[in-house]
Amino acid sequence: MKILHQGDTEPALCDLDGRVTVTYRYRDVPFSDGSGMARNVLAGICDVCSEVLLVPPQSVPAIAASRRRSTGPLEASLPASYVDTLDAAVSLVDTEASKEFRKRLLMYYLHRYARGDEAMAELVGLAGGAEQSASGPNRRLSFKLSEQANANVDYVMNETGLSKTQLVKALIGKIAADLVRRTKARRLQELIALCEVMKA
Ligand SMILES: [Zn+2]
Known about the structure:
Elements: E1 9-14, E2 18-30, E3 37-46, E4 52-54, H1 60-71, E5 74-79, H2 80-93, H3 100-115, H4 120-127, E6 138-143, H5 147-160, H6 164-180, H7 185-199
Antiparallel strand pairs: 1-2, 2-3, 3-4, 5-6
Bound molecules: zinc ion.
């Protein structure tokens, strides 16, 4: 891989200006989903219109890292009935389970969608909330996530177009259907076993 430096030039094709020369400069580059900016990343700038035309491979990790940092904790403000449903599911899995297990249960399901074990389209439907009654005052959930878990949240949000709050609502809707209403008795057994392993 050729390492580029500030001031290096290269021919490129600009949508506006046709064949141009780009000059590599440090620039704030917007994330592809428009959720923020990666600061001071080396990028190829059109000499005519000053748009970013090329992002060299060496700059990609910086952009990816910034994106993960921009995700922050998984936070949602939800009607109390959602949180109660999540807690009901947690207590089914483990009567002694702590609030920490809320996060593990949500992440378990998030990973199932991220891996393709469950269909993303279903998640979009669940976010509508038809499966789950919304009542009570709003309560705030906030989970600190590992970098890998954050990457999965980002991935599923990008694929579905859901906000964090919608995503958490959808996951709780799924948990309610699978565990609280017991449509997936096997999944509940699997989670109980997993929980016992984690406590061992
Ligand atoms: Zn241009």
